[in-house]
Write a structure and sequence with these properties.
With about 260 residues, the chain is α+β, with helices and mostly antiparallel strands. Helices cover about 25% and strands about 25% of the residues. It contains 7 helices and 14 strands. Strand 6 and strand 7 form a beta hairpin. The longest helix has 23 residues.
Amino acid sequence: MTVLKIISWNVNGLRAVHRKGFLEWFMNENPDILCLQEIKAKPEQLPRKLRHVEGYMSFFTPAKRKGYSGVAMYTRIPPSSVREGFGIKRFDTEGRIQIADFDDFLLYNIYFPNGKMSDERLKYKLEFYDAFLEDVNRERDSGRNVVICGDFNTAHREIDLARPKENSNVSGFLPIERAWIDKFIENGYVDTFRMFNSEPGQYTWWSYRTRARERNVGWRLDYFFVNQEFAGNVKRSWILSDVMGSDHCPIGLEIEI
C-alpha cells in the first residue's frame, strides 16, 4: 500500500502567491499532488519556474477570460488522462474543472462559482453544482472511486463559519446552497475533514477586510470529499491554517491506495 499526500489551495492569483514564497512552501510541503484554484493566469503568462517544477508534471486549465478563475495541478504521479470540463460549454470555458484519472481514483480539482455577484450568478452556481453532481455520480456509478477537492464557495453548517446568523442571507451560506451540500452528502460523499475534526473555529477563508484572519473570523469553504466506498482509504484530512499568501489557506488529504 502507498500513502499519497494531496494538497488543495485557492491561491487567489498564482503569480501573486509566487512572489510570496509559493515555490519554497511547495518544496517544503512536498505533496504527491498539488491542486490549485483561482490561478488567474494563462500558462504563457506564468514564469518558467511555475510552469516547470522539478519532479512534477503540471496541468493548467485557464479561463477564456483573462485574469479570472483557472485551476492547475502539479503531480508526481502521471495521470492516464486529464479532462477539463463536464462537456457543457458555459461551465467549461470558465477554467474551473480538472478531472485527472489516477487509475485507483479520479481526482476532481474544482473551483466552484461564487454566487455573490448577482441572482444570475447564484443561479449559475447552483446549475454548476448540479452538473458536477451528475458528472461525479456517473463516474461513481461506473465503479470509480473519486476524490473531490477545491473551493466549494459554501460553508455547509453553522460550525463552518464564525458568524452564521449575520450571514444567513449571504451567498455562501444561503439555505439553498447549504441544502445542495446536504444533497451531495446524501448521494454518498464524505466530508473528510469532519471524519477527524468536529471542532468549531476551523476555517479556510478569511476576508482581507477588518483583519478577519488575525481574529479568526472565517469560513470553511474548501473541502476534500470522497465517495463513501473510498472513505476507509482516508488516513488524514487537515487544514494548513498557518500558511499565508492568499485569503484562503491550503487543505490536506492523505489516502492509502
